[in-house]
Specification:
Sodium/glucose cotransporter; mainly alpha
């Protein structure tokens, strides 16, 4: 116990220390929200990765999908690395950085407002972020309850308050730069923690080959009649597995807290390096999480899914580890949760301030007032998420957890297509953008309320979210072709940022 407590205290001290150290970078809105657009490749890549993978992934998704699909759940982690990280950086990174600076936009809603010259789009995007970000934030605490109960035997409410207060301190003090540096530290912990835990859990069952052999001997006739299905290449349900891969991988392309990491990148070289670092990080962390979860059925004698749910799988797998490893796991999950929480509250507070309050509610709002408003809203968002998390925990309200599952699909379904087309296609219209907003958010809300009326395959929020994202890629161009075309001069000026000529060293180009 002393070892675990000391590890936690050291972790908390470093997080707070970084927050106050970075206070000098958070004296204006640009520095507080975007780090002055001067964040290097390592910090950017780790900020992206740690915001991507939270306790929801490690405790919830890894356990649930590992149980359902066996070792094939590793494909989710591979998809996260290749589609959600590498391809996202290659397709979105450079263009996002260039156009958002050209349009002087600090948030995703502000980008929509300026790219399509529509205040209504900006407000609509802000409302979608506000509605769906809060329950997503609250859900981050859920993964901590069982792990802290196992490691420290303390009340879940205490865990929530400690995590919320510490995250609030370093985000409010140091802004985006403090978040990025802490994300880097937390990412290092996650890398080593995942590797150590996977090796330790496999050793419990005699190593990788013995664990795989044991998994192949497990059968569940309610899932599949095929022998060894949980140790197979694609598992018992490849169609729904593909839906999970699409939602958790392609979804990052439309999530504000993920895309805004590209706003702050320092240089072209940072994008190239960041792509490699982010991909490798995702392979280890996401691949490791889902790979670990794939062996969950080996511990079925100590797991009661009906009584305790899927969230009990990973804690049960870890309960026999040494105190040092359990302490490392707790810090790992804290790191994953705090990094994502800091990203979410920063996105929510800056979006509400810059896109809703400034100009609409408060007509004249200088830099200092915006900065104060963002900091106050960070406190508000954290407080609301704490209340929601405690309400859900104390009263077993399923609505919040259900809404969390819908939130990822709603935001990504609404934003992915118009953001992607807005960066690349000059003929994208505000009508196409609004159509995507309405369909993405509307379909996920319909799924939540009237789920039983949908076809079987779309009743799952996972599949529904994947469907909205793919549908948006079709809806936006169709609606754009039949709605009012954007002004030619405005479009020419907007895309001029990509035509600007610059001189580079011969190491970057062989052209003379």
């Amino acid at each position: 116990m002393i070892i675990k407590v000391l590890m936690l205290l050291l972790f908390f001290a470093v997080m707070i220390g970084v927050g106050f150290y970075c206070h000098k970078h958070a004296t204006d809105v640009d520095g507080f929200v975007l780090g002055g657009r001067s964040v290097g490749p390592w910090l950017s890549a780790f900020a992206y990765g740690t915001s991507y993978f939270s306790a929801v992934i490690f405790v919830g998704y890894a356990g649930q999908f590992g149980w359902k699909y066996g070792i094939a759940s590793t494909w989710i982690g591979i998809g996260n690395a290749l589609l959600g990280s590498m391809l996202a950086w290659r397709v979105l990174g450079r263009r996002t950085r260039v156009m958002t600076q050209h349009l002087d936009s600090a948030t995703m809603p502000e980008f929509f407002g300026k790219r399509f010259r529509s205040g209504n789009l900006k407000i609509a995007a802000s409302l979608i972020v506000f509605v769906f970000m809060i329950p997503y934030t609250a859900s981050l605490y859920n993964g901590l309850s069982r792990l802290f109960g196992m490691a420290f035997n303390i009340d879940y409410t205490v865990c929530i308050f400690v995590m919320a207060i510490l995250t609030g301190i370093y985000v409010i003090a140091g802004g985006y730069m403090a978040t990025a540096i802490n994300d880097f530290i937390q990412g290092i912990i996650m890398l080593f923690g995942i590797a150590a835990v996977v090796l330790a859990v496999l050793n419990v069952n005699g190593g990788f080959i013995a664990s795989l052999d044991g998994l192949a001997r497990i059968s569940d006739e309610s899932v599949s009649q095929t022998p060894g299905i949980f140790a197979s290449f694609f598992g018992p349900d490849p169609v729904n597995l593909l839906g999970v891969v699409i939602l958790t991988s392609l979804g990052t392309w439309g999530l504000p807290q993920m895309v805004q990491k590209f706003y702050a990148i320092k240089s072209e070289r940072s994008i190239t390096k960041g792509t490699i670092i982010s991909t490798l990080f995702a392979i280890v962390v996401a691949g490791g999480c889902y790979f670990l979860g794939g062996f969950g059925r080996l511990f079925s004698d100590s797991i009661d899914i009906k009584a305790n749910g899927y969230d009990s799988i990973i804690p049960a797998m870890l309960s026999s580890l040494s105190p040092v490893l359990i302490g490392l796991v707790v810090i790992l999950v804290l790191s994953a949760s705090m990094s994502t929480l800091s990203s979410l509250v920063m996105t929510s507070a800056s979006t509400l301030t810059i896109d809703v309050i400034k100009g609409s509610i408060v007509k004249k709002m200088d830099d200092k007032k915006q900065l104060l408003c963002i900091r106050l809203l960070i406190v508000v968002f954290i407080a609301i998420s704490v209340v929601l998390a405690i309400v859900q925990y104390r009263s077993n309200v399923t609505f919040i957890a259900q809404l969390m599952g819908v939130s990822w699909g709603a935001m990504a379904g609404a934003f992915l297509a118009p953001f992607l087309y807005g960066l690349y296609w000059k003929k994208t219209t505000k009508g196409g953008c609004m159509a995507s907003f309405i369909f993405g958010a509307g379909f996920m809300i319909y799924n939540m309320i009237f789920r039983s009326t949908l076809p079987q395959i779309l009743q799952s929020p996972i599949n529904a979210g994947a469907f909205t994202m793919l549908a948006g890629l079709i809806i936006v161009p169709i609606v754009s072709l039949i709605t009012k075309k954007p002004d030619d001069e405005f479009i020419k000026e907007t895309f001029a940022c990509y035509e600007k000529k610059i001189e580079v060293h011969v190491t970057s180009s062989l052209e003379e």
